[in-house]
Amino acid sequence: MSAVADLVVRHGHVITMDDDRTQIEDGAVAVVGDTIVAVGADRDVAAQYTATTEIDAGGGPVHPGLIEAHLHASYQLFRGALPDQMPEDETFDSFESVFYNQVRDEDEYLSVALAGVEMIRNGTTCFLEAGTILAPDSAAAAAEHVGIRALLGDTFIWDQPHGFAMGTTEDQAHRRPVLARTPQSRDEALAGLGTQLSRNDRDGLVRGHVAVLGLGTASEQLLVEAKRVASAAGVVLNMHQSYSPADTAADRVRFGTDPLVRLHELGLLDGAVTLAHVNHLTDAEVEVVLDSGVNIAWAPAASMMWGHGSTLHGRHAELWRRGGHLALGSDSPNWSNSLDLFRQIMLAVFGAREAHRSRTYLTAEDGLYMATRGAARAVGMADRIGSLEVGKKADIVIHTLDRPELVPTTDMTRNLIYASGAKSVDTVIVGGTVVLEHGAFRRVAERELYREVRAASRALLRRMDRTVTPNTPTRRSR
């Protein structure tokens, strides 16, 4: 007699992302509650389980939900507002500081809801937020409404609020705008440290972790305490590190040595720490990364958009090939502008091949691992998500074969990564719940959300006294 499953996905090309990278051409996944109870050949799973709800994947790719390892989820309302020619060191004074002093809680709700909708449509089922949301409760409500898994950090944990990023001197930093709703001292930062961890008392979609902004904004004392809190709670410590040449050089000056060497000396680097970007490393730092097991959330588009050179000079692909722990991130709506991890996979794989002049340097499978298993480790949930295996949460993405990019059916992973990407995402399941069905959201009224976002964006930009100006062409017509 067969057991009863709440949901069975049948007749899919199942890309499990398990240790053996098992793929099942005519496979099935059975789910009870929010947990996977069987993965295998369709005939075997169908014989073992009777489904309350059955989804026929029609031979399309079925894979674990992608995991966004570095995201600023509250900037959606001014995506694309930064002119292409604006130097990065002007953006804080001209846009970001103004945004944070004008944004309202309801704006952040809409921003996170829009980000969630975009990610689900692109096959992402979980994101690690960078600790830059002023109203985490609004963000949590938005994530729960959309049905996406979220890991939230405390608001702007820093005790050197302006930092010394982008080559800013201490004297210059103290003349920069103040973000009124963020900590202004070490005591305030310590008081806010770990407040999101209370979400972990229940097994919900939204959980907490410890995030420190980084980029020169945290003292060694604050970093050490943040690591202590994260370790005690069994969650990841997440921070920006070595993003631009300027902030990397500033860290080297303040530490008196290579930044990651100093962080390692302080006992901050291990497998429960995730550093975003890490675009600029010395040979000594490469060895630190490998020895410590620290996770790196590689955001290739965020470097390429701002011309930081990580694709050409970064060590990410080298670290991967030597056993380092890599995940992928989209960063923000103005630092890559697209919350599409398939795009990041493409940029990572192709960028590495271009930089190393080798077609074989990274493969499609490498990129998919970074966006699933690698990212699950980076967000501290390797035991729960990142692969389709018995006992893990049922975060499942189903693609349709009714896309020209997936015809003919040759190698499914290569066609998925190099051809269709997110365009073929059809149905998305998070924790056993179908949130996107044949391209339609079950919980979200999309058109209404888009209307609300457009209206809120116009109002926000008016309060910011900012207008979106066209770019100046770099080449004049003759």
TrEMBL record:
Domain of life: Bacteria
InterPro entries from the UniProt entry: Amidohydro-rel, Metal-dep_hydrolase_composite, Metal_Hydrolase, MTA/SAH_deaminase
Domain named Amidohydrolase-related: residues: 63-435
Keywords recorded for this protein, A-Z: Hydrolase
Annotated signal sequence range: none
Coiled-coil ranges per UniProt: none
Record bears the keyword Membrane: no
Protein name listed in UniProt: Amidohydrolase family protein
Organism lineage: Bacteria, Bacillati, Actinomycetota, Actinomycetes, Micromonosporales
